[in-house]
Amino acid sequence: MVRLDRGGEKPPVVVLIEAKFHSGKSSVADAQTPHPTDQLAKEWDNLLQVADEGAELYVVYLTDGIGVPADDINDSIQEWRDMRPGAEDPKILALSWRDLGVVCRDVLNDNLQATPHVLRAWLDDAGGARLIASTLPIDPQAKTTCLIFVDLYRMLCRLQLTYFYGVHVPRVSVFSIWQFNTFPTRWTRIETVPTIQWSFSNG
User: Fold this and answer.
1) Count of CB atoms within 10 A of residue 40's CB?
2) Residue 203 CB neighbours (<10 A)
3) Which of 123, 127, 130, 169 is the least crowded, having the fewest Cβ atoms under 10 Å away?
4) C-alpha 88 chain-centroid distance
5) What is the pTM of this model?
6) Confidence of residue 170 (pLDDT cuts 50, 70, 90)
7) DSSP string covering 144-197, please?
8) In whole angstroms, what is the distance from residue 112 CA to residue 48 CA?
9) Which of 102, 106, 2, 9 is nearest to 59 (CA)?
């Protein structure tokens, strides 16, 4: 559970993260019980009890899928409505582990445009992260932070937790200089033209 203070008189934001990897919800709805048993509905029920009064609440359903797990979320909301009639619907957000790869790419790409004193990195065409230049940073933490994102992105690629980012043009190295050769045209004069005699034949 993460609590985010927004400062001033604004209420805090409390986020409960339910993380899944190669697995679904650990419990589903059970009409025989008087309280929510669906995992996400149950966690929303618990969140209401432990969060600050007036806080903005969210449950984040973190999975390894590409699309939104709409069926899982809708089932949880429906059970909440059945068990807590009249109460406000739970705010359940979907997030994929694959979105972390997008964050890592953005961070590393930003560092490409940053000062030379910050570690520079780029993402190769194979989808992995490879360092191409590193100088002593002004802030030692800057280098450490970049390396964390490089390692995190490598791990996501190894686990195939990435999106299709499109087709990339491979890097081409010039190994030789070449050009089309032209040859001079030489003409040979015909001194004599033979006489050809012919006529239409009547068969």
Assistant:
1) 25
2) 3
3) 169
4) 32
5) 0.61
6) low
7) HHHHHHHHHHHHHHHTT--------PPP-------------------S------
8) 43
9) 2
